Amino acid sequence: MIELIAMEKNNLTFREVTEQDYAFLIALRRATMNPHYIKMGKTPDEQINAQRVLDHYESTPIIVLEGVSVGMVKAFSEGSDWILSQIQVKADYQGRGIGTAVVKQIIDTAPENTKGVRLSVLKGNRAIKLYQRLGFKIAEEGDSFYRLLFQLDLSKK
After folding, report:
1. 2 inside domain
2. pLDDT digits 0-9 by tens, 2-31
3. Sign for the pseudo-dihedral over CA of 151, 99, 104, 68
4. 72, 28 contact by CB (below 8 A)
5. Number of domain units in the chain
6. pLDDT at residue number 8
7. Residue 85 is part of a domain; what is its CATH number?
8. Pairing state of beta strands 145-151 and 62-65?
9. 122 — alpha (psi -120 to 50), left (phi > 0) or beta?
10. What are the tens digits of pLDDT across the range 94-120?
11. What's the 3-state SS for 22-48?
12. Within a domain: 1
């Protein structure tokens, strides 16, 4: 499970997810992901949205800015890599450096012996620019997505 610490510089904190957060998380998922599927000519699938929200549910810190729940992040260990499974920030809070701060912290707090941080991003999602700016490289290209990898320098851990 990911353990994130409060970031005083930008007033970001994290709290544990509760059962009561499901409505927030499903609404956030719809708002942040459905437009990408529609742009790709696909119909958003409520069953997939629910699955993605429930996947690793207990390992979903809620991102809080000045007391307001503004997003979520899921990251977990798989083999020798740290998987950034999901990060979503409410649209009206995007562009404020929240995603950058959270992804940097995930990279910085990856468990010892982690070789890299992996993630997938849908084609057309502008978040790919954020990931590439932070040093992620395209490792694989699918029909509708890219798999990216951030190679960690184990000598610095």
Report:
1. no
2. 555 556 556 889 999 999 999 999 999 999
3. negative
4. yes
5. 1
6. 56
7. 3.40.630.30
8. unpaired
9. beta
10. 999 999 999 999 998 887 778 999 999
11. HHHHHHHHHHHHHHHHHHCCCCCCHHH
12. no
CA distances from 33 to 85, 113, 134 (A): 13, 32, 22
Q: Is 81 contained in some domain? A: yes
Please tell me the distance from the alpha carbon of residue 28 to that of residue 23, in angstroms, as a whole number: 8
Least confident of 40-54, 87-101, 143-157: 143-157
Residue-level pLDDT at 110? 83
- Residue whose tokens read 């990898």: 149
Strand boundaries in the chain, DSSP class E: 12-15, 62-65, 68-78, 81-89, 116-122, 137-141, 145-151
Q: What is the pTM assigned to this prediction?
A: 0.88
Residue 139 lies in a domain: yes
User: Could you tell me the residue range of the domain that residue 15 belongs to?
Assistant: 8-156
